[in-house]
Structures are given as C-alpha cells and as structure tokens.
C-alpha cells in the first residue's frame, strides 16, 4: 500500500474505499484491509474490508471495487491482496481449544485443576493449515496429478513448461520488465528488491525430483508446481472521469469479468477453460482478438490440461454444453514474462499481479486486449478482459 502511494502520488484522502483479498487469515488481523490501510497511513475515515476466494481473492477484491464504482458508491478504490506463507497460523487441537475455553470460564481452583488433569498428550498435537479441499479432503497437488493423467500430460511436458516459465521470467527480470516489485526490508534479513524464486534449471536436474503428491507414479513435482511465498499487491482503480479530473493517465480499462464454478473433485483446476469463452462472449471478442494472455500457473500440468480442454470440441460439447471449442491461446502470447511457477504464488496477491502484468505487456507490445484467467480452490475460476488505455 505504501508502494502504491509512492508510485502513484495519489492523495490518501482521495481514496474512497479499500478492498483486500487474503486466504489464510490471521485472527488478530481478520480484516487485514483495514489494519494495513491504517498502517500505511491512509485516512482513518476510509472504510476497508477483506474478501476471500482462494487463489482469486485479489481478483474478487478488484471486481468488488469495480462494482462499487459502477454503482456510483465510489470514485477511487484501492484493491489488492496479501499472504504471509512463512508465518501461517497454527492452532491447538480441537480438544485442547475446548479445554482452554472451558478453563477460562472455571471459577474455582478445584474446577481449574480438574480440567487440567484431563489434558492428555494427544491434546498437544497441532492443527496445521493444509492446501486441501474441505469438501473432498484432497490436496490440490493430488488434483493436479489426476488432471494431468486424465488429459494425458507427461512428466516431460510438465517439466518443459515449468522450465519455460522460469526461463521467460529470468529474461523479463534481466530486461527490467518486472518493474512493479517494491523493495521490502525483511526484519532480521536483507532487503528484497526483486522476485527471488526465479531459478532456471535444466530438464536433467528437474527430472531427478521425485513425485510430490501421488507416489511413486505421479508426475507433479516441486519443480513443476508453483511455490508458496510471501507477497502483497495493490492496484489503484478509478472511474475514467475521476482519473482524468485528477490528472492521471490510466494504464488500462478493466473491461469485463466473469466468475465460474464447477465440480471441486474432478474439475478443481479448470476455471480458465470455463471462464475464457464466457468472458469473451460478454466482451464481444474472440480468442483471436486477444493480444496477451496471463493465466495463473498453479501447476504446469494444470496449465497444459486447461490448454488441451480449451482446444477440445469433445470437452466443450460433453462438459460445457457448447457446440465447439474456444481454442487454445498461442504460446507466443501466453505468460511471456513468466508466471506463478517462477514468480511464486502468494494466494491472495496473485490476481493483481496478473492484471498489471497484462496491462504492461499490452503497452510494451502494442496490443489492445489482454485476457487474465485463474483457477481457485473449491472448483472456482475467474476470467477478465483488460484493455489498454489509448496512448
């Protein structure tokens, strides 16, 4: 948020509302949007709320802001997302929590000692947050492995795609294209000035890694999966009239968006396949009209499965109720500055990164339309059309 204030010089009191997305909430800052806004120096008169929608939480934050502006409630909204994967909340077991709450209500020493005497060693086993579906108890990695198998995507194909992501991210970083990283001083450590998860390797090195989820025959490994990382993002959204009145030249329009949901067991990660044709139709565009594609890379297998599904008439007819396929995005327009596999995936923050990268790629490459898409836990997905503002 401070980085946004510095980059844009937007007056703090001009911001009407702040919306933030996050996934693994900290109890002490359950409305992290408000706490962060106060910490960043925004006016205490500026309302703020927090949304959660798994990996598309900051997408939801942005579109919530768009809706508030469209409804005439606000002119200026700051949206973003945050995740602190290096310090996730770890809870006591349910038995211990219940005992501690009861202990807090005990009035006499005898009652307290009686409760304490009932505590057993297994009460101290912690509950760790898991990247797993509540409805199926299956981890996302298992789902990715099954999806890759269902679409016949080999380990080699997944490793090749992951290597592509890291290689393109390194190239973009070296060329100074990833300009939106705000330096951050990590307490007790060095200042982070650029994405530090970009590690181009080799097919040989990647091939040595063992399956991470379905052992021993799975194809999803640590190398072809997005890695968990700390991260935060912020984006400034205004009505066009307000932006021009304040003397700003907008980067892009957030033109249209859709959210989709499907079966969280077998189609958990296919959000882009379902969202892409819907958002194109909503915007009156075709796949050929899109100049840049920015898709969230949860797993290399997930990306490749979506590309295959999008390019399949059979899938469109049997699963989507459509007469024909939407088609697969051409790779020369697809995530050409890297993606979540190489840049990392701080759950709540990724959506804004996708959108602003799409806008910057459009400006750099002289394109007009970008398509952002992402899958999310719960079998949900998001797609958005970004249009470059006339230069």
Please outline what is shown here:
The protein has about 400 residues and is of the alpha/beta class.
Q: How would you sum up this structure, described in words?
A:
Helix 6 crosses helix 11 (300-310). A hairpin with a 5-residue loop joins strand 4 and strand 5 (191-192). The chain has a four-stranded mixed beta sheet with strand order 2-1-3-6, sandwiched between helices. Strands 7-10-9-8 form a four-stranded mixed beta sheet, with helices on both faces. With 391 residues, it is an alpha/beta fold. The chain starts with a helix and ends with a strand. Among the domains are: 91-127, no CATH class; 140-183 and 251-386, 3-Layer(aba) Sandwich (Peroxisomal Thiolase, Chain A, domain 1), CATH 3.40.47.10. The chain contains 14 helices and ten strands. The model has no long low-confidence stretch (mean pLDDT 95).
Strand and helix map with partners:
Elements lengths: L1 H7 L8 E5 L10 H9 L7 E4 L5 H14 L5 E8 L10 H12 L3 H9 L22 H11 L4 H20 L9 E2 L5 E2 L10 H5 L23 E8 L1 H6 L6 E10 L9 H13 L8 E4 L4 H11 L2 H7 L20 H4 L6 H16 L3 E8 L3 E9 L3
Parallel strand pairs: 1-2, 1-3, 8-9
Antiparallel strand pairs: 3-6, 4-5, 7-10, 9-10
Helix pairs in contact: 6-11, 10-11
Characteristic terms for this protein:
about 400 residues; Peroxisomal Thiolase, Chain A, domain 1; four-stranded mixed beta sheet; 10 strands; transferase
The assigned structural class equals alpha/beta
What does the largest sheet look like? 4 strands, mixed
- Per CATH, the superfamily of the domain at 140-183 and 251-386 is Thiolase/Chalcone synthase
N/C terminus separation: 26 Å
Helix-strand pattern, N to C? HEHEHEHHHHEEHEHEHEHHHHEE
What Rg, in angstroms, do the CA atoms define?
A: 22 Å
Number of strands: 10
Name the CATH class of the domain at 140-183 and 251-386.
Answer: Alpha Beta
Protein name: Trifunctional enzyme subunit beta, mitochondrial
InterPro entries: Thiolase, Thiolase-like, Thiolase_acyl_enz_int_AS, Thiolase_AS, Thiolase_C, Thiolase_CS, Thiolase_N
Domain Thiolase N-terminal: 2-241
Keywords: Acetylation, Acyltransferase, Endoplasmic reticulum, Fatty acid metabolism, Lipid metabolism, Membrane, Mitochondrion, Mitochondrion inner membrane, Mitochondrion outer membrane, Transferase, Transit peptide
């Amino acid at each position: 948020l401070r980085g946004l204030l510095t980059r844009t010089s937007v007056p703090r009191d001009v911001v009407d509302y702040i919306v933030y997305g996050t996934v693994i909430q900290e109890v002490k800052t359950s409305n992290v949007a408000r706490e962060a806004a106060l910490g960043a120096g925004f006016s205490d008169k500026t309302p703020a709320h927090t949304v959660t929608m798994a990996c598309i939480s900051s997408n939801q934050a942005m579109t919530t802001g768009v809706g508030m502006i469209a409804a005439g409630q606000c002119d200026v909204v700051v949206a973003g997302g945050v995740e602190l994967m290096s310090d996730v909340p770890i809870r006591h077991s349910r038995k211990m929590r219940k005992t501690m709450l009861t202990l807090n209500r005990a009035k006499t020493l005898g009652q307290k000692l009686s409760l304490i005497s009932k505590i057993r060693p297994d009460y101290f086993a912690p509950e760790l947050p898991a990247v797993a579906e509540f409805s199926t108890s299956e981890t996302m990695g298992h789902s990715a492995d099954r999806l890759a198998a269902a679409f016949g995507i080999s380990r080699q194909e997944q490793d090749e795609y992951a290597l592509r992501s890291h290689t393109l991210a390194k190239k973009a970083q070296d060329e100074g294209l990833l300009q939106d990283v705000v330096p951050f001083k990590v307490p007790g450590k060095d200042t982070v000035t650029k994405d530090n998860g970009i590690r181009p390797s080799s097919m040989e090195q990647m091939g040595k890694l063992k399956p991470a989820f379905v052992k021993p025959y799975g194809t999803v490994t640590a190398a072809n999966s997005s890695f968990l990382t700390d991260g935060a993002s912020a984006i400034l959204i205004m009505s066009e009239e307000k932006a021009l009145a304040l003397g700003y030249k907008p980067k892009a329009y957030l033109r249209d968006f859709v959210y989709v949901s499907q079966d969280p067991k077998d189609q958990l990660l296919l959000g882009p396949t379902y969202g892409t044709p819907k958002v194109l139709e909503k915007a009156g565009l075709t796949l050929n009209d899109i100049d840049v594609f920015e898709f969230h890379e949860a797993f290399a297998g997930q990306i490749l499965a979506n590309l295959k599904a999008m390019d399949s008439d059979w899938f469109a007819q049997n699963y989507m109720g459509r007469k024909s396929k939407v088609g697969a995005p051409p790779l020369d327009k697809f995530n050409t500055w890297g993606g979540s596999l190489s840049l990392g995936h701080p759950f709540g923050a990724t959506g804004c990164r996708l959108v602003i990268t799409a806008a910057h790629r459009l400006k750099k490459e002289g394109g007009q339309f970008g398509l952002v898409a992402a899958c999310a836990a719960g079998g949900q997905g998001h797609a958005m059309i970004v249009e470059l503002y006339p230069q």
